[in-house]
């Protein structure tokens, strides 16, 4: 029986293509809205927060705008009075109905910020409250774990960052190839069964990445926790080096997520080799030939440059999570104790 999660993973290429087609024409509007803004702040929770991490890195490395992740509690609990007159605040929520995110957007506007909503529902409260809404075109997502709503948020992050970049269309050729790469990875599913079988042998799992794919690593960790009910730690390899690597041994499965190129690839290759030498079964997702060799088990990633790779690299990881959940006798469509719309404070 095909799960809803598997169906929605397969729907992602078309959903991302629709989203890119719908949002690219809004680049001029985004540029006008952000005129005079020196800073970009992202507000999100859960999978949306992991998408925002990609947005933050792409904003700084490609659009050259200082960016950061905001703490919603500064608005909702501390009610801090900040001067955000030079900030573009981007609030991300697949449903657009998470009260904490809506309240933070309203607070930011009251503090003088220009506001953007990224949501899958154009009629949501978040979309209606924002100066401009980037509405993703994922369609209805029925499985509780976010798959196509997550990857369409990544597409929205790419459109947003490129809109504010010196050359807005510079990444378009690669962005337009992303759905094709997503479809290829989903169809081939290379290494997915083997990776799921390896992870099933242990209760101790670590996920690491860095840079533009750091959000992908955290998303993989989140999906394993919420869908497979395994405690998982997600760390950048820089943080991993600063102490936590000491606990790595033969009882741990380490998943390392890497881009096919870029300045962090060599470091991730070294980390994969180090984890393997310490006894961990190391599953490498993405990377290049040297990275694959450094890993115990390699799961191929997309043929896309680092700036665009996050849109597709997560696909084989999603397949691993869905496969592992079924192997463990769990329902990946409806993880225990979770619902589609999460409220931080009931």
TrEMBL record:
Keyword Repeat: yes
CDD domains membership: SIS_GlmS_GlmD_1, SIS_GlmS_GlmD_2
GO molecular function: hydrolase activity
Gene3D superfamilies for this protein: Glucose-6-phosphate isomerase like protein, domain 1
Domain spans labelled SIS: 30-170, 195-335
InterPro entries: GlmS/AgaS_SIS (IPR035466), GlmS/FrlB_SIS (IPR035490), SIS_dom (IPR001347), SIS_dom_sf (IPR046348)
Keyword terms, alphabetized: Hydrolase, Repeat
EC id: 3.5.-.-
Transmembrane residue ranges: none
Name of the protein in question: SIS domain-containing protein
Species the sequence originates in: Tenggerimyces flavus
Lineage: Bacteria, Bacillati, Actinomycetota, Actinomycetes, Propionibacteriales
């Amino acid at each position: 029986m095909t799960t809803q999660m598997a169906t929605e993973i397969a729907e992602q290429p078309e959903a991302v293509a629709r989203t890119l087609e719908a949002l690219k024409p809004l680049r001029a509007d985004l540029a006008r809205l952000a005129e005079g803004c020196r800073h970009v702040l992202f507000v999100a929770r859960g999978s949306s927060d992991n998408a925002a991490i990609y947005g933050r890195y792409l904003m700084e490395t490609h659009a050259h705008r200082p960016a950061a992740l905001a703490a919603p509690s500064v608005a909702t609990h501390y009610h801090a009075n900040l001067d955000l007159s030079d900030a573009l605040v981007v609030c991300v929520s697949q449903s657009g109905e998470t009260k904490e995110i809506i309240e933070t957007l309203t607070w930011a506007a009251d503090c003088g910020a220009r506001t953007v909503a990224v949501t899958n529902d154009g009629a949501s409260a978040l979309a209606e409250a924002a100066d401009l809404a980037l509405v993703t075109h994922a369609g209805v997502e029925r499985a509780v774990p976010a798959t196509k709503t997550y990857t369409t948020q990544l597409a929205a992050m790419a459109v947003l960052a490129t809109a504010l970049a010196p050359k807005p269309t510079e990444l378009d050729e690669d962005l337009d190839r992303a759905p094709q790469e997503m479809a290829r990875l989903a169809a081939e599913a290379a290494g997915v069964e083997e990776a799921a079988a390896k992870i099933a042998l242990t209760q101790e799992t670590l996920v690491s990445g860095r840079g533009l794919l750091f959000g992908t690593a955290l998303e993989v960790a989140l999906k394993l926790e919420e869908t497979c009910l395994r405690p998982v730690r997600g760390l950048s390899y820089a943080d991993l080096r600063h102490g936590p690597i000491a606990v790595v041994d033969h009882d741990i499965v380490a998943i390392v997520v890497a881009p096919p190129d870029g300045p962090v690839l060599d470091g991730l290759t070294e980390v994969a080799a180090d984890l393997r030498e310490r006894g961990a079964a190391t599953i490498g997702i993405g990377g290049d030939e040297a990275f694959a060799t450094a890993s115990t088990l390699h799961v191929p990633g997309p043929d896309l440059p680092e700036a665009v790779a996050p849109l597709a690299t997560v696909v084989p990881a999603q397949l691993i999570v869905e496969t592992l959940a079924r192997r463990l006798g769990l329902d990946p469509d409806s993880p225990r104790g979770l619902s589609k719309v999460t409220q931080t404070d009931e």
